[in-house]
Structure formats: C-alpha cells, structure tokens
Amino acid sequence: MLRNLYQSLWSYRGFILGSVKREFQARYRNSLFGALWTVLNPLSMIVVYTVIFSTIMRARLPGVDDSMAYSVYLCAGLLAWGLFSEITLRSQNMFLENANLLKKISFPRICLPVIVLCNAAINFAIIIALFLGFLLVTGRWPGMALLALIPLIAVQMMFCAGLGMVLGVLNVFFRDVGQLFGICLQFWFWLTPIVYPLSILPPGIQRVIELNPMTALMNSYQNLFLYNQWPNWSSLLPLVVIGLLFCVMGLRLFRQRVGEMVDEL
User: Fold this and answer.
1) In a 3-state reduction of DSSP, which class is residue 39?
2) What average pLDDT is seen over the chain?
C-alpha cells in the first residue's frame, strides 16, 4: 500500500508542486506587498510579544533571571501550535474546498493532504527562520541543539497529517465534525502549556496536563529555543504512537470512503 501511495504521489509531483505554487501566489494576489506579508505577519507577532511581555508586563519565567525568557518561551510554543492548527484546520476542509476539482479532474485524492502539508511547511519555514534570526540578534542562538528541530517537526507533521486525514474524511460525511473540532482546538490550546509553564500548576493538574500528547512536544520546542536543550525523546514516544495510529486510521478511512466522497460533496 505504501509503495503504491509513493508511486502515485511521485507520478503527480508536478500537480502537487503546481498546486502549492498557485495557492501561495493566490494568497497574496492583488496585495500591495505581496509575499512580503509572509514575513511581516510573523515578524510583527514576535516584536509585539517581546515588547508587551518583556518590557511592558515584565513577565518572568519561574527560576529564570532573564527579561526576555518568557517571550522566547511564548513565541516557541505559539509558532509550533500555529503549525499544528494550520494543518489540522485546513485538512478538515481540504476535500470540501476542492469539491469542484475532485468532480472534474481525475488525480490521486491523496495529493490533497500532501499539498496541505507542503503549504504549511513553507509557511512554517519562513516563520521559524525569522524567529531564529531574532534569537541570533539577541544572542540566544540554540547551538547544536538546533539539529533536533528537524525530527521534532517531522514527528509533529506526522501527527498532524494523521489527525488531519481522519478529520478531513469524517467532515465530508458529518459536517458537524469541523465545527466541533474548532471548539475542541480552543480548549486544547489552553490545556497545553504554551502561555503558562507547567511548573506553576498544582501537582494534580500537572499530571492531567501531561496526558496531553502536545505537552511533551511544546516542552521540547520551548526547551530547545530557551535553554538550548535536546528533547527528551522518550517523552515524545506517546505522540509518535498516536500519530502512527492516526495515519493508519486516516489512510484506511480514506481508502474505504474515497469512492463515496465525491457523491457527498
């Protein structure tokens, strides 16, 4: 199955790359600054969070004597969460948004999730490059620990792809899935230690938050950028297992229902 999947994607690589390029261009068509907004939006977010939390609110992380530590902690978590939310939210609607394409053109439907992943990866690469530039200018370059960023992103994208595939197929047949996931995503965000450090919570609540598979991932990003620490790979094992299960479930659902999806669109 995986070999056939790879062959289909490779045969239609031109279609995938063309779709990624068109979507990127369409996003900034008829705008004065064009693709420059890809840089300005995340750059403004980094500057705003740094100024507000470091200078105005003087937020501090427990046990860290650094005025900008909380801003780095917050930005690291928000950027990683942004990748997660972009992939899952776009994936849940990828078949609905491309209904006309699915009805008129014959191509492997599995190309659509790959297009979503590629677009998200490009956006995240631009944003993370700006964030790394900020860390370099402020003397907070992660050093050799930065090499861990690639496997971290790979683990996260595998989890997002699997979950997104399940949501995308289910949302074709049950439109409430998309609405429900949007609500769940808001609760999920606040149940993940992004805005707050896990250490400030009572022990009982900490144990509950640690059951969240995104907790270990966010902690890995934050420790990498803030403390130049390599991830605790064993803590990411549950996320890897859940991601693989979602991938298997998503591919199975897709293979079983791909013929019916066009009729439902």
Assistant:
1) helix
2) 85
- The answer to whether 254 and 169 have CB atoms below 8 angstroms apart is yes
pLDDT in tens, 238-258: 999 999 999 999 988 888 887
Q: 111-137 and 149-173 helices cross at what angle (nearest 10)?
A: 140
Which long-range contacts (C-beta less than 8 Å, at least 24 apart) are formed by 19-25?
A: 19/111, 19/115, 20/115, 20/118, 20/119, 20/122, 23/115, 23/119, 24/119, 24/122
Q: Number of helices and strands (H, E) in the chain?
A: 12, 0
Specify whether the CB–CB gap between 257 and 265 falls below 8 A. no
Amino acid at site 131: F
| 151-203 pLDDT tens trace | 999 999 999 999 999 999 999 888 888 889 999 999 999 999 988 888 888 99
Tokens of 66: 């650094």
Query: Residues with Cβ < 8 Å from 71, sequence gap 6 or more?
Result: 49, 50, 53, 54, 59
- In Å, how far are 100, 238, 252 from 166, measured between CA atoms? 21, 18, 9
Over the stretch 15-52, which tens digit does the pLDDT of each residue have?
888 888 888 777 766 665 555 666 666 667 767 776 77
Report CA torsion sign: 155, 215, 86, 241. Answer: positive
